[in-house]
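Title: [Solved] Competence protein ComEA 3D structure

Original question kept below for reference.
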Amino acid sequence: MPSWLAPQEDSEDLSPDSVRDLLDGDDPDRLVVSDDHLPHRVLPAPPAALALVVVGILAVVVAAVVMVRNTPADIGPVNFPSSAGPTASRVPLSTKVAGEQSAPSSATTARLVISVVGLVHRPGLVHLRPQARIADALAAAGGPRPGADLLSLNLARPLHDGDQIIVGFSGDGNRRAMRSAVIAADEAGLPGPGGQPVPEADLPSGASGKVDLNTATAAQLDALPGVGPVTAAAIIEWRNRNGRFTSVDQLAEVEGIGPGRLAKLRDKVTV
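Solution (posted by the thread starter after getting help):
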């Protein structure tokens, strides 16, 4: 407690009579009343202290309001899926695996099988992607050999499954040129673009089992003695250029057929 609020033990209590005697006296000094003779009273608190109390009360009220507003709402129960039965994640997984397994089979069936023969480094069958072109088939066969006739080939021509590319040779001083050619699958009696093979009964043939030079396919000509894929392509090239054979002797005009080979073919072909 402040000293100014503490009661003074040595102070005298003034009675009404003593105060009256002091006022009635002639001595002016007796009119002066010292603080020691006045009763002690509790003075009111200063205004600054009251202001601090008010501010404290307001702070408590504001804090209480903020705490009430920031109290999180009750969180409802979380419903977890039951372990019984398949979950949603299992179905897409099985579907994805099935799709991945079926993709290679469809890609395999879509690849083209092309026959490349003649002046190439690795003649035979090559497997190409869909919409492949003649240039892709030659590259898969190791590329053309020196002297190969590439001017007769449209390297940008698209291929179909079962096509055959016959790479001929350019002419020089010792031999005549044999132009390159492309035999389509349906023209060779093989399955065409529709996938249906040409029946053997529909294949052209001459009387008495002889091969008709004007209607024979590359496969039929290739089966003749002494005739390979290159010579068969040369026969078809001559036929396309001249229209049709009018005599078997005109085979001598085909590149690669000499007198000896013509003698072997005379009894096997007809016009």
